[in-house]
Amino acid sequence: MIQILDSTLREGEQTPGVYFSPKKKLVIAQMLDWIGVDIIEVGNPAVDSEIASSVKQIAHAGLKAKIGAHSLCKIDHVQKALDCGVDFLGVFFSVSQKRLQKDYKICLETAIAKIVEVISYAKTQKPDLLIRYTPEDTVRSPIENVIEAARAAVKAGANIISIADTTGYTTPFHPQRSIYFYVKTLQEELGNSGLYPQIEVHCHNDKGLALANALDAYRAGADIIDVSVMGLGERAGIVDLGELLINLTEMGEAGNHWQLGYLQDLYNFVSEHSHISIPPHQPITGKNAFTHYAGVHVKAVAQDERLYQSLNPQILGKKSSLALGMQSGYTAVELAMKQIGREELAENKDLVAKILQEIKVIAKRGTPIDIEKELPEIVDRYCTNQHPITNGICTLST
Ligand code: HCA
Ligand code: CU
């Protein structure tokens, strides 16, 4: 069964300007746990003592999810992570030719010796620790280097090898540049050595392909997929949690054990505290994700929502809704009037037509019309006993 690793608190906090206090981090972790993610990556305890105490607090909060720390390939970083009592440790170190030469200034053998030393240390200190090794920028590194480093890491005690598309380089269907190719090749090459680690994927969204690549990895048989709330992360971020879960759910994955009803609250919380708003047209959690607007749509949806919806909003604890504006038709106004409790007036065809005209004029201001607030005011303007259209049937005017 596919597992989800949420990295909102680690990768997500690498979004410029984003900071979650330890209290907020705990709330986010709790909500992720209710949703049912398998691993929560909280951060690198060596970066800051506040992050360390947060990792420790969440690791001891009694959550079902495994709690993880991120770590550079350094013994002192690993030790700080271990001191927090985590269940999971992610160690990353690139084996790309360029990185080895230009940044680290070491050869592959030295790099592998370092990776082995650090992983063996962690495994010895805590044998039941789940250890992930990530050859950072995996997909732009020579595949031979990746295989060699992965083999050594697994032999040293790594349980998981993560394929990191650190720069959003991969493309589905490309023969060598797809994450599918990397998952299959690693599984095969490691399998040939009698090694069967779990394969994780970490897909960045630089070309808008993070979700597509994650699904490509799923198709190839990856075991773990990294996500974050709102896809937060470095540059264009990573895979969006809600989008991935809905896609996997729709494919019948994981026996629907995710509690998708908590997604909206989690997104609202993260949006509020990251000061990054959710775009209205964001799938699943955007304000308009289940809102119908143009006349033809609303008329059809009034008969059967599925005519313009492939997803059932109820699985997210949501309902579909209606918007009013320039594109609206008669049915939308009628339905909106019923929604605000003016059923009796909704039967007055002349009145509905007049209100529709007025709505089309208001729409020219170019911002959404609030049905609950603005429509009653519009209706009330017609609601006087003297008004020729509503005379005698308007019950609410005083
Ligand atoms: C980073 C890079 C990383 C690491 C992923 C991992 C990436 O540290 O910000 O450790 O599995 O995209 O390669 O997020
Ligand atoms: Cu990343």
What are the key terms here?
single chain, 398 residues, alpha/beta, TIM Barrel, 2 domains, eight-stranded parallel beta barrel, binds 3-hydroxy-3-carboxy-adipic acid, binds copper (II) ion
Give the SSE map.
Blueprint: E1 3-6, H1 22-35, E2 39-43, H2 49-59, E3 66-72, H3 75-83, E4 88-92, H4 97-104, H5 108-125, E5 130-134, H6 143-156, E6 160-165, H7 179-192, E7 198-203, H8 210-220, E8 224-227, H9 241-250, H10 263-274, E9 291-292, H11 295-303, E10 321-322, H12 330-339, H13 343-346, H14 349-362, H15 371-382
Residues 11, 14, 70, 90, 92, 134, 136, 162, 164, 166, 202, 204, 234 line the site of 3-hydroxy-3-carboxy-adipic acid.
Give the CATH topology of the largest domain.
TIM Barrel
What is the string of helix and strand elements? EHEHEHEHHEHEHEHEHHEHEHHHH
Per DSSP E runs of 2 or more residues, the count of β-strands stands at 10
SS content category: alpha/beta
How is the main sheet built? 8 strands, parallel, barrel
Number of domains: 2
Name of the level-1 CATH class of the largest domain: Alpha Beta
Count of alpha and pi helical runs: 15
CATH homology group of the largest domain: Aldolase class I
Distance from N terminus to C terminus (CA atoms, Å) equals 62 Å
Mean pLDDT: 95
**Which ions, cofactors or small ligands are bound in this entry?**
3-hydroxy-3-carboxy-adipic acid, copper (II) ion
Using the 3D structure, state the CATH architecture of the largest domain: Alpha-Beta Barrel
**Helix share of residues?**
40-55%
The neighbouring-strand order within the major sheet is 1-2-3-4-5-6-7-8
Residue ranges: pLDDT <50 for 5 or more in a row?
none
